[in-house]
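Morning!

This is the sequence you dropped in the shared folder:
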Amino acid sequence: MLESQQKTTETDEKVFMIKNDLALALNSSIGIVDLSFNILMGLGEKRIDWDRLESYTESLEKTWNFKGQIITPLTLDFAGVSAAVKKQVPKATSKETFNILKAIYSYFDGSKPDENQKDANVEFQKAKTIVLAYYTLNDLMFAKVIGEGVAETESSALETALQGLANEPDLKVNFEELMTCVAKLSPGVENKAIVEDTRILLKGQLKLL
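The structure's back. C-alpha cells below.
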C-alpha cells in the first residue's frame, strides 16, 4: 500500500513538473511568435520600416528565456533573421522568420510524453491546441493586414481549436469576440494597437498572461 501511494505521489509530481514546464514553454514561445508575426506584417507594408524590424529582432533574444526541468528543450536560433534584417533583404527576412515560427510549431506539434510520463498526455495535447489557436489567430490577422482578407479555412481552424479548449474548466474562449477584433484590421493603415489588443484578448482567454 505504501509503495503504491509512493508511486502515485511520484506520478503526480512528474505531471505537475511537466505542466509547469509546458506553461513556461508556452509563455516564452508566445512572445517569440508575436515578434515573428510583427516582422512578417512589417514586411507587408508598402514602405518597410527596417528600424522597427531591427528592434523586433533585438527583442527576440531578450524575450526567449525558456529552461525546462523535465520536458525536451527547445532551441531557437535568431542569427539568420537578425542578419537578414540588418542587410534589409525582405525575402531572406521572411524565410528566416518563417523558420523560427516553424521550429516553435513543430516543437509543440511533435511533443509527447515519454513512456513513464503517460499521465501527462492531456497536458501535452492541451499545449498543442493552444499553440494551434494562437498561430491561427496570428495567421488571420496577418492576412487582414496585408490585404488578403480572412480565409474561411483559417477561420474554421481557429473556431475548431477554440472548441477543443471549451471543456477546460479554467479557460473561457470566445470565437465571436476574437473575430470582431480581427474584422477591425485593414491593409495600409496602422494596425499595431488592434493586433496587440486581439492578442491580449486571446492570451487572457487561454491564461497565457
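Headline: DSSP finds eight helices and no strands in the chain.

More detail when I'm at my desk.
O.
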